[in-house]
């Protein structure tokens, strides 16, 4: 497996790219060549491979552009010989038979749920890049259930779709169906979570570096007792990587890793209520309150995500510990409208929009060549410093 780092261009830059999908640009190029009589009736046009090289896109993007022109009657294809310009619109109808297609313009995307900014931006990136490539999107949620995930995967494969992007349900093992599809060379790309030791095509944020930079930010502000709070670590690679980055930053700055400063077994479904319902789960908040009471010397906390971060801030408020004067809190992702909250949080931008676009690019590449070596693409993150972190309080 090869590991690659995606461009560090931010998601906002990505969104400002071309508004015209790539396949439509190519479609218009071919149409113009014909309308301007550069290519005449019955002329053979460049092959899909030649145009893919010319425009530096995948063959599938070219295929999608040409297929629409075939259906419009502007060109026709002869099996084994190539693609040709049809008779002009004033002449006889072209003699061609459109290829039967079943699902080859639709890609499926499965994810546990769409309930926060991260998942919404991830979906948005996938949707936009698929449109650029000329594909439709089938989107389904699994409710973070491996059983539902398995059923949906089987339905999608039976329906004849050409590719799947999947954000796996949380667990200590991949769904067997994902492994079967990978072994059978079915085009699959995994996003955000991956299973160590299993070679699949996947795209993720650089969670290790993101957590490292968040922790080092606290260290540079004078903090030495820095905690880490998360939902269950085991079986979720993104959380495991964030914990690794946190511990790496402590070690490289000469701070002993204190296991008692870690709280890593909150229930994700419970703690997520703060974003869904506007109120934290009482059990999760109470556990964080107890954690803060056990560690009065703590001056900074790295929260694995925005749900945990908001619950930490509520727990601190209950104990009359001010953020950031008494306790700095850094979120390892962001939430909708966070900039307008009473205390806008310092956070790590996971660049999830870019993760979505890169996942589609990788899937299209795999669809063009299913036997290619499996690839891991890591998207750089970015620390955004705001009001929830400050210098260590005076003792």
Automatic annotation (TrEMBL):
* SMART domains for the chain: HTH_GNTR (SM00345)
Which CDD domains does the UniProt record give?
A: PBP1_LacI_sugar_binding-like, WHTH_GntR
Disordered: annotated span: 1-20
Q: Does the keyword Transport apply?
A: no
Q: Which InterPro entries match?
A: LacI/GalR-like_sensor, Peripla_BP_I, Tscrpt_reg_HTH_GntR, WH-like_DNA-bd_sf, WH_DNA-bd_sf
Record's superkingdom? Answer: Bacteria
Q: Where is the HTH gntR-type domain?
A: 20-88
Q: Which PROSITE patterns match?
A: HTH_GNTR (PS50949)
Record's keyword terms, sorted: DNA-binding, Repressor, Transcription, Transcription regulation
Q: What is this protein called?
A: GntR family transcriptional regulator
Q: From which organism does this entry originate?
A: Paenibacillus oceani
């Amino acid at each position: 497996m090869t590991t690659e780092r995606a461009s560090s261009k931010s998601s906002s830059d990505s969104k400002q790219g071309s508004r015209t999908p790539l396949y439509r640009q190519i479609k218009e190029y071919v149409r113009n060549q014909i309308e301007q009589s550069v290519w005449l009736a019955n002329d053979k046009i460049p092959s899909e491979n030649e145009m893919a090289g010319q425009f530096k896109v995948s063959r599938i993007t070219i295929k999608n552009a040409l297929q629409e022109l075939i259906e419009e009657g502007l060109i026709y294809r002869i099996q084994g010989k190539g693609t040709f310009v049809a008779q002009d619109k004033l002449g006889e109808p072209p003699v061609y038979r459109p290829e039967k297609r079943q699902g080859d313009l639709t890609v499926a995307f499965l994810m546990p749920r769409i309930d926060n900014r991260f998942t919404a931006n991830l979906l948005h990136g996938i949707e936009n890049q698929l449109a650029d490539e000329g594909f439709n999107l089938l989107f389904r949620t699994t409710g973070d259930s491996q059983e539902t995930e398995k059923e949906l995967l089987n339905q999608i494969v039976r329906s004849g779709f050409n590719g799947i992007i999947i954000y796996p349900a949380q667990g200590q093992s991949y769904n067997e169906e994902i492994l079967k599809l990978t072994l059978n060379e079915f085009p699959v790309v995994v996003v955000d979570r991956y299973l160590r030791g299993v070679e699949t095509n996947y795209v993720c944020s650089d969670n290790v570096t993101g957590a490292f930079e968040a922790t080092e930010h606290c260290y540079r502000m004078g903090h030495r007792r820095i905690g880490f709070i998360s939902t269950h670590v085991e079986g979720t690679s993104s959380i495991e990587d964030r914990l690794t980055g946190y511990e790496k930053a402590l070690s490289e700055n000469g701070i002993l890793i204190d296991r008692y400063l870690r709280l890593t077994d909150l229930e994700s479904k419970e703690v997520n209520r703060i974003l869904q319902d506007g109120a934290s789960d009482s059990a999760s908040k109470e556990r964080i309150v107890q954690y803060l009471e056990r560690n009065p010397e703590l001056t900074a906390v790295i929260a694995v995500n925005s749900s945990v971060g908001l619950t930490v801030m509520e727990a601190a408020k209950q104990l009359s510990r001010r953020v950031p004067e008494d306790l700095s809190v850094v979120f390892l992702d962001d939430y909708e409208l966070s900039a307008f909250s009473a205390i806008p949080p310092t956070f790590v931008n996971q660049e999830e929009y870019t993760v979505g676009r890169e996942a589609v690019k990788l899937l299209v590449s795999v669809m063009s060549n299913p036997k290619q070596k499996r690839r891991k693409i890591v998207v750089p993150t970015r620390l955004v410093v705001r009001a929830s972190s400050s210098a260590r309080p005076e003792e």
